[in-house]
C-alpha cells in the first residue's frame, strides 16, 4: 500500500490559518489563549461530524489511541501533543488500522512506507495548526483526503445554507463540497446546430442534459463539465453485432499506385445556408427533466463542488436530429455547438416544436470537457475547433486520429477486443434514434443510404489512409487549440492504442498550451477511483484554476508527465517528457534468434510461415486471448509461424520510452503480405494484474449521501515469465506511405521501416528484451491462413529504441 499525492498546495501559516477559519475548524477558538492540547482536542472533535453531542464526541475521542496504552483523552491529561501522538491519531482518522497497517510504537516508519507527507516535529500551536491543515489534505486508506471523507460524513452540510454570493469556497486551491446534491436541478434543452445532417431543410437540434446546483437559481454562475457521449441515449448492440465484418478473409493484393497526399486530402465542402428557427419567445426554466443521466463518476464528484455536469449524445441520437456519424467534421461541429450555447453564443430551445429560446444563464461561460474513449475523443475534437468557451479538456484514452484506431500501416487493424468492428459498425451502434420507432421510420432510408456510403468510403479492402480518414484526423488541426489539455492513457490500452495520445502529446509541444500527461498501467479504464493516486484532487486543482480562475499554481504544481511504475504497486514517477533529453538511442541488430549489439554480416536469412494447421487456426480464430498467450510463451504450432529474437540479459534496469523503430529487409512468397511485431519483456517476475483489483465496493462517496464508486488498485500477481510491451503492424505494400501502394514481387527482398506503438516501460535488470516477428494477428488484423512464407535478411535488420537508465 503506497499513496501518491500531486494535488497538494504548500501554503504559509497565515494562509492556513485563514482557510481553517473559512471552513470553521477554528470557530470558537482564541488562539492566543488556547493550549496545544486543547486545540488538538478541538480539531479532533470538529473531525467527528457524525457525533452531534458532546458525549458522542467524547466517545469518539476515547476510541482513538494516542500511543500504545492511552486514548487521546487519557494522553492529554498527562502529556502534551507531539508529532508521534499527532500522527498516531492521524493514521486512525485516515482509516488505517492499528497493528494491521501500522505500529503505534513507530508511526513514522509507517508514514514513510505509505508515502504520506508529515511534519517531523510539532512543538508549538503554530506547528500543530499547520500539521492539521496538511492532514486535512492527506489521503487516507481509501485514496481520498481526510477532508473529502469528512465531507462524506456530513461535515459541510451546514455550509449548504450559505448565500450564493458566498459560494464557492476553496481550500488548498480546490473547490469544496458545499453544494447540496439532494437538491440538484436536472433539465433538458435542445441546442440548435449549424448542421442539417438528415437533409430535412432545417438545422439539427441536439438534446442536452444538465445537472446543476440549486444555488444557480439564486444568482450563482458555475462552470460546466461537459461530457459528449454518443452512448448516452443508448446503443444498438445487436445491430452492431450483425454488421461486424468478417476477419477470416484474405489480405488483398493492391494495385500499384503513385498517389500523393494532395490527392486524398480532405477539404470541407461549401455548404449553403441552413434554415434556423425563428424565436417565438423566451423562457428562463426548462420544460423537461431527466430521471437519471448516464454519468461519469468524476463529474458526480465535482457536482458537490460547484460545477454543473452536462451530457449530450450528439447528432443522430435519441431525441436529437440528424444522422449518426463517426469522427467526422459534422460530429465535431455537433459537439462544439453545446459549448457555444454554454458560453452564450448559440441558441437552444425548451422543446423541439415551440421555438421558445432558453439561455445557459446559470453558466459562467467556462467549459471543460471530460470523459474516456469516444467521450475523450470528442473532447479532443472540440479542442481543435479553438472555440473560446472551452477552457480545458481532460481527455482519457482518446482518439486523435481515427485511422490510428481502425487501421495501422496500410492494414485494417481492429481496436483490441473488437475484431471486425469499423466506423460503420460504431455508427450503427450509436444511432439511438432507432430506439424511437416513429422517429426511426421517417429517417430509416436516409440512415441506411448514409451508412452504406460510409462502408464504401472507409475501404476495408485496401486499409489505406484516404480522404475519409483524413477528414477524421484531428492532428491536422492542433494549431487551433487554445485550451489547456490533460491527457490520460493506459500503457496497456489496445483499444485506443498509445499512438493516439503520443501523437497528440508530441505534436502539441511547440504550442503555447498548458499540457499534462498521465500514463497508467491499465487498459481502457478510468483512474479517478484508484487508491494510489489523488486524481480527483489533482483535477479539482486544475479545474478550479481553469474554470473559476483561482490563482492556485495548478499548472506549476501538477507534474508535466506522470507515469505509473509497471514493476511496483502504487508507485508513480514524474518525468519532464515522454522521450526527452534524458533518453539515449539504443540499437540492437538481428542474428539467429538473437538481438545483438553489433551487426553480423554472416547472420544469414530466417523464415517463417503464416499457415497453421486447420484445427489450430480455428481454435485461435475463436480465442485470440489464447493465441496471444501461446505466441508469447512460444508454444507449438506458433513457433513455426513466427520468429523470436532475444537480447542478452540486461545488466542494469532501463526505461523504454517513445516509439521503437524497426529497419528490416524482408521478402514474401506472394504478391501481398503483412508483418506484425511484439516487443516483449522476458524474465520471471511478479507483474501487475491486467485489471485493477476491487478493494472496496462502493467505497468512494462523491459527496454527502450522494453517488458512490468502487475503490480499486493494481496489485502484483503470481510470477510470470513474460510481459507484452508493445505491438506494431505493416502492409508490405505500404513501404512508402499509407496512401501509396508499392509493388511486391514474390520472393524479392525489400527494405522497409516500421514504427511500433509507443511505450513507457521499466525493463528490470536481468530481463531480456524480445522481439517476435509474425504475420496474422488474430485479435487485430485479417487472417485467412494462407500458405504465405516470409524471410528476413537478418544482416540488414535492426531495432532502434530510446531508453533512459535507472539509477541503482
What key phrases describe this protein's structure?
eleven-stranded mixed beta sheet; 808 residues; 22 helices; eight-stranded antiparallel beta sheet; 23% strand; alpha+beta; Rossmann fold; Jelly Rolls; single chain
CATH architecture descriptor text of the largest domain = 3-Layer(aba) Sandwich
Structure annotation, total helices: 22
Number of strands: 31
Widest β-sheet, arrangement of strands: 8-3-4-7-5-10-11-14-15-16-17
Largest β-sheet summary: 11 strands, mixed
Radius of gyration: 29 Å
User: What is the CA–CA distance across the termini?
Assistant: 22 Å
CATH class descriptor name of the largest domain: Alpha Beta
Mean pLDDT: 96
Q: How much beta, percentage-wise?
A: 15-25%
Give me the secondary-structure category.
alpha+beta
Q: Which stretches are poorly predicted, pLDDT < 50 over at least 5 residues?
A: none
Count of the separate structural domains: 3
Binned, the helix content reads: 10-25%
The CATH superfamily of the largest domain is identified as: Alpha/Beta hydrolase fold, catalytic domain
Catalytic activity: Hydrolyzes Xaa-Pro-|- bonds to release unblocked, N-terminal dipeptides from substrates including Ala-Pro-|-p-nitroanilide and (sequentially) Tyr-Pro-|-Phe-Pro-|-Gly-Pro-|-Ile
Domain Xaa-Pro dipeptidyl-peptidase C-terminal: 540-800
GO biological process, one term: proteolysis
Organism: Ligilactobacillus agilis DSM 20509
